[in-house]
Amino acid sequence: MGEDMVFLLSTQNKYKKIEFERILSPLGLEIKTAPELKVDLPDVEETGTTFEENALLKARAGCEVSGLPSLADDSGLCVDALDGAPGIYSARFSGEAGEHGGDEANNQKLMELLKDTPDEERGAHYVCAVAAVFPDGRELVTRGEVYGTIGREERGTGGFGYDPLFLYGDKTYAEVPASEKDKTSHRSVALQKMAALLKEELH
Question: Model pTM?
Answer without folding.
Answer: 0.91
